[in-house]
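Work package 3, deliverable 3.1, input record:
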Amino acid sequence: MDYEVIKKPESKEIKPAPNLGDYEKARREVKWVDVATDLDWFGDGKINIAYEAVDRHIHSHRKNKLAFVWEGKDGTIEKYSFYELSRASNKFANVLLTLGVEKGDRVFIFLERVPELFISALGTLKIGAIIGPLFSAFGPDAVKDRLLDSGSKVLITSPQLKSKIEDILEDLPDLERIVIVNRDGEEVELGDKGVNYEEEMTEASEDFDIVKTDKDDYAIMHYTSGTTGKPKGVVHAHEAVVGHYATSKYVLDLQENDIYWCTADPGWVTGTSYGMFGPWSNGVTQIIYEGGFNAKKWYHIIENYRVTVWYTAPTAIRMLMKFGDELPKKFDMRSLRYACSVGEPLNPEAVIWGETAIGIPFHDNWWQTETGCQMIANYPVQDIKPGSMGRPFPGIYPAILDDSYKELPPGSEGHLALKAGWPSMFRTYWNKEDMYNSRFQDGWYITGDKAKMDEDGYFWFVGRADDVINTAGHLVGPFEVESSLIEHPAVAEAGVIGKPDPIVMEVIKAFVSLKEGYTPSDELKHDIQKFVKKKLSSAAYPREIEFLDSLPKTRSGKIMRRLLKARELGLPEGDTSTLEE
Ligand code: PRX
């Protein structure tokens, strides 16, 4: 079904006037080098994300402006001005120095979404070390894989999360120190590597000279899943802040008086690019809510803090839709002037629902962990074609390519690629340079997504070119889940696919064959699910398990996920010539 275009408002009707007034002109004329001059830089190509995000404001009228208002799950509220955030992160930078952390070292953060997460991330960047924020929902195996691969020297965590990963801590030869953030003042066993965050912070100086990192020095790592192997560490450099800044200004349209709320966790790239560096480099006040999804609470946050710009995700929007149109009407949502969405395809109904239920449509945008910032987007001054990801960000050149990497004309389906070389493009996969290089062809970065572009230059998502599963915006590699499944004592073989779902896009479904002596039962299913959930993460366990006597394999023994998926969805099985007899 075709959906009507949502016409852009007359320019004079858009209040306040959007930062991007003339999209076509910006696309014709914009140059990244010019955009970069909006930031402060230290000279000689030196730039530090933490300085651009926070410290530069303390020399301006924004010194005492709120950087964020944090609301805890228990209702506690804490507020930090840019000045206070600068001082606190200076202290943490000094703490890290006393622990022997140096420029280039990896410091991973496994914390709930509390103020210390943001303070320690900024402090780490200030000394030129590399941050690796991890989802607090991760289980021990997911944490271990990431700490081992990155060779993380320091882990910042809480007593509750530390107890979850106690068993793996001995297996991490590079890990020298564990900083424990003890907000509740519990009795904690520090052990020989443990350091008490609160004690160290009390003693640390508030003064710190930010390390003048080079624009190409590594700053941020996020792990992302691929079809094969363990998750890969996507590495971004300090220059990425140019992309965070520009897109927050022109896609999210952030302006001086905005109250901005990004619902993403910093364990995910959206939570760092647009939950820290983008809005803060624009000097904008953020709301940070520690809790997860809750329809009433979310509307209440918008009403209570007078949120003006809201960045969220399709699964969350679809869950809000399930709660109905009446619920938002019970709240005062009039402060909202702009809303965006990312992470999965945003169905046209969800775009339109925004208009009818909360008064403004959702503006979809597309990007990836690897791209570091938004690449394709809908803008306040452009018509929205519901279901489309929008048009290229000025300075970004996407195209649709065929299998030999030649550009296809409008209307054709193919590989979504981007002309390589923008400030926040990832710089490597940690320790996997070959894999990094394999993502580039003839000057194009191949995204791994399939898409098409229409005659008006709008891009439409078609699907992934690989087996990676997108469940509620989390990319999950089938290999990771399969590896975890076969560690269960009853499981002989496992094949994992994404099964379409109306709310979360895809649910993880596992096909499992059992070892001799085990028989299928619901009880065993639950046990296997619990096992994977505990080891990997609550986002990555299979919601559905089906027992099979054996799994379809190629003659070389590879499980044919494609066939499992085709059979599950009742689609043609395609070429089965390599199928084992
Ligand atoms: O498949 C695309 C999907 O999510 C992938 C990127 O996921 P990740 O690296 O975790 O980055 C998250 C930050 C955006 C993409 O390759 N995706 C993301 N946004 C959209 C999308 N699919 C369709 N429409 C989108 N707007």
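The chain has a mean pLDDT of 95.
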